[in-house]
Design brief:
globular, LivM-like, 308 residues, transmembrane helix, 16 helices, mainly alpha, single chain
């Protein structure tokens, strides 16, 4: 970790955060709103990368954890009138509990079955939302009566601060002894187990951490949107965006996942006038990155810096 803090990329990242913090002083509310959403998606992607990039487990259902946190927070506020901040904390806690319940059996299966288990969890959550429409708002969505703030600049700073703190924590964890064990177990679980590491225990810890940040970010996002719906926090397409963001930014970089999310959200929005062509262009860029830069944006930059 020490080498990162003395690298050019660290100082570039620090400069970017400082510049980003000043944007509300001279950009429009539209741009701030777009970046606010991108920052929350950045946390989604970083949390996903911790589980896939380091633990080696492909979670095809990141929106299960996101959706549980988002809907728990939204329901507690809309149906019971609880305070926003308490709802956010309880949303994150609910996501951790749901993640624990899902991970305990899922981590004991190998290969594609783990990914299928997480994907089925998303489909079950979608079905739950539709069946219990009186509680969840169903397909229409749940209107949230309270928001953190209506000030665009304040919302932006909250999202930026949250993403920055999350990035520092998740990156620090990835470089800790636990992160090194996760890397070993992800690359060669048999060898890691032979060395005496408890593979399931460490992967379970990674899943719980991923669930916490996913749920917390999901809860914050619904109090920014003022609504919770399948299309915004649970849909499989949302999960695909999270996965593509992490792959674009770079596997096992954590920070790159956030960059990938910002790129994906911003590019998708500015290409919106092109209609369906926007999806094609973004997908083509993602495919080219996977084929020619499998390490992603940040992975390629780190490799270049190491060579130089």
């Amino acid at each position: 970790m020490a080498s990162f803090f003395t690298s050019r990329l660290f100082f570039i990242s620090l400069a970017l955060v400082v510049i980003a913090a000043t944007l509300p002083l001279y950009v429009s509310g539209y741009v701030l709103g777009l970046l606010t959403v991108a920052f929350y998606f950045g946390v989604f992607a970083m949390a996903w990368d911790l589980l896939f990039g380091f633990a080696g487990e492909v979670n095809f259902g990141p929106t299960f954890l996101i959706g549980v946190g988002a809907y728990t927070a939204g329901i507690l506020n809309a149906q019971f009138g609880w305070s926003v901040y308490l709802c956010i904390v309880l949303g994150a806690l609910a996501s951790v509990i749901a993640g624990l319940v899902l991970a305990l059996p899922a981590l004991r299966v190998r290969g594609p079955y783990f990914g299928l288990t997480t994907l089925v969890a998303v489909l079950m959550l979608q079905n739950f939302i539709v069946v219990f429409a009186d509680l969840t708002g169903g397909e229409i969505g749940l209107t949230i009566p309270d928001v953190i703030t209506i000030n665009a600049g304040a919302n932006y700073w909250i999202a930026l601060g949250f993403m920055t703190i999350s990035a520092a924590i998740l990156y620090g964890l990835s470089q800790s002894p636990i992160g090194l064990v996760l890397q070993a177990s992800g690359q060669d679980p048999v060898q890691a187990g032979a060395l005496g590491f408890n593979i399931v225990k460490h992967k379970l810890a990674a899943f719980i951490v991923s669930a916490f940040f996913s749920g917390l970010s999901g809860a914050l996002l619904v109090f920014y949107f003022g609504t919770a719906s399948v299309g915004t926090v649970v849909d499989v397409a949302v999960g695909v965006n999270v996965i593509v963001s992490a792959v674009l930014g770079g596997r096992r970089t954590v920070l790159g996942a956030a960059l990938g999310a910002i790129f994906l959200i911003v590019a998708g929005e500015f290409l919106r006038p092109t209609g369906e062509l926007a999806t094609f262009i973004v997908s083509a860029v993602a495919l080219l990155v996977v084929l020619f830069f499998p390490g992603g944006f940040l992975g390629a930059a780190l490799s270049h810096e190491a060579r130089s």
